[in-house]
Design brief:
mainly alpha
Length: 323
């Protein structure tokens, strides 16, 4: 986390000096992504190490901060760009982020160190541990692979979509704030529900609903009011992926292996995070909003099917059981 605390803010500040597009790719793209990974991935494993009976709620509270950040940063960034310009905005964000990350890193404490590989060949750069592979974990990896293809699209495309229905970009930024606020609430409430009704049950339900809301409500969002309803409902369901993936991973591989297990799960999200939005953008340009929206929603539904199979496997075929 200490590495990411320095690298991620530095990447934003370096991006402010970019004079060519490839400078932005290297700084705000590659370097910031690496720094963010060093900060985020270790931090989300920590609540599961310290809590047992309320593990999902603790993780939900911890990751709700990113939703709160989205509420604050989206309008703040829009305002800063208007008043200071995009270069100074990047510098402000880098400095602001560095201060927050210093506090976060100082407070972070790990309870378990990653155990050595069962084959005795463990190295710091190893991202794959064959000893963790099982049918259940492979299904979780399949879920992790498909879900980011649909998860990020509404956040990135909201400003462009509101313009297509006759609104301005500031309204699009407001919609991102609405989704982020609902997302922050959802991560806490879904964490509470997961501890009460079952973590796999909750993950399945919220992922499936997020896909259906996208395929139906977003598809028919022909005015501002309907799109607001979609943003709220999507925000209240889509955040389950972020808050519940660490706890479901801990349930499958064991809390003592959560660093390795969650690291492998996040590795499978790389392709979706990298290509999901560009693919949707290509579908939008080549066809229409219908193709883009249905692709995003179908990816969430497909990932829910993986979670359904995993849930039934964990429940040993039982339907009405807490898992």
């Amino acid at each position: 986390m200490s590495i990411g605390t320095v690298v991620a803010p530095l990447a934003l500040i370096l991006a402010s000096f970019a004079t060519q597009l490839w400078h932005v790719y290297l700084s705000q793209g590659v370097l910031f992504g690496i720094g963010a990974a060093f900060v985020f991935s270790p931090s989300v494993t920590l609540p599961s190490q310290w809590f047992t009976s309320r593990r999902a709620l603790a993780t939900g509270i911890a990751v709700s901060g990113s939703g709160v950040g989205g509420v604050c940063l989206s309008p703040m960034t829009q305002r800063l760009i208007v008043t200071l310009g995009y270069r100074n905005t990047l510098r402000v964000q880098g400095s602001f982020g560095f201060g927050l990350l210093c506090i976060s890193t100082a407070l972070a404490t790990s309870r378990y160190r990653p155990p050595p590989s069962s084959k005795g060949k463990d190295k710091w750069y190893h991202i794959y541990d064959s000893s963790l592979i099982s049918r259940r974990f492979l299904l979780l990896l399949g879920f992790s692979f498909f879900v980011p293809f649909g998860y990020v699209a509404p956040f990135f495309l909201a400003p462009q979509f509101v313009q297509s229905i006759g609104l301005d970009t500031s309204t699009g930024a407001a919609m991102i704030s609405v989704m982020s606020a609902a997302n922050a609430i959802c991560r806490i409430t879904l964490g509470y529900l997961a501890d009460r009704t079952g973590r796999f049950n909750t993950m399945l339900t919220c992922t499936f609903l997020a896909g259906i809301f996208t395929m139906v409500i977003w598809q028919f969002s022909t005015n501002y009011a309907i799109f607001i309803v979609y943003c709220v409902l999507y925000g209240l369901t889509a955040g389950g992926f972020v808050s519940l993936l660490p706890v479901t991973t801990a349930d499958i591989v064991g809390v003592e292996n959560i660093q390795k297990g969650l690291g492998m799960a996040y590795m499978t999200t790389v392709i979706g995070n990298l290509l999901g939005t560009p693919i949707i953008g290509l579908l939008l340009d080549a066809f229409s909003w219908t193709a883009a929206i249905q692709f995003a929603g179908s990816m969430s539904v497909i990932s829910a099917l993986f979670m359904l199979v995993l849930r039934m496997l964990v429940a040993k075929g039982k339907i009405f059981v807490k898992v």
